[in-house]
Design brief:
The chain has one domain: Nucleoside Triphosphate Pyrophosphohydrolase (Alpha-Beta Complex), CATH 3.90.79. 14% of the residues lie in helices and 30% in strands. The chain is built from 2 helices and 8 strands; from the N terminus they run ββββαββββα. Strands 1, 4, 5, 6 and 7 form a 5-stranded mixed beta sheet that branches. It is globular and about 45 Å long. The chain starts with 8 loop residues before the first strand and ends in a 5-residue tail after the last helix. 31% of the residues are buried.
Length: 166
Amino acid sequence: MPPFESLPYRPCAGMMVLNHAGLVFIGRRASGPEHIDETHVWQMPQGGIDENEDPYKAALRELYEETTIRTVEKLGEIPEWLAYDIPRSIVGEAWGGKYRGQKQKWFALRFTGNDSEINILNPGDGHKPEFIDWRWVKMAELPDLVVPFKRQTYERVVKEFKKFAG
């Protein structure tokens, strides 16, 4: 495997989905090499951006593939890409050792549908479920629920999008 520092970042879209009460959708990850305990297994929807794919279109696609959510309105986005490194100890297990972490384009979306639209167990387009549970949480709680190496990114996302919590 190449040296850690020479590995690229995986392009990814992240979505902060807020309901009308200003709470944020989070899903409990089914599995992954980054799991360290039962507290830090939650995250907002996120997923890879295909080559030449528009980041916002990728965000909508990934959101549907993970949650079946389609009824959203775009509230905003963070202009620059946010990057994080995964722990060196799991580089060989994550994404086949091809990436050192992710660079993410983040979008804030207002969920305008009903909770009955959300289906994490049978997600859109026949994708394998990534979440085993979900809930709505206060935005301020997010950084404490994710794996520590994503915390700084989540703190930045919360700072940028807190104006949408109402």
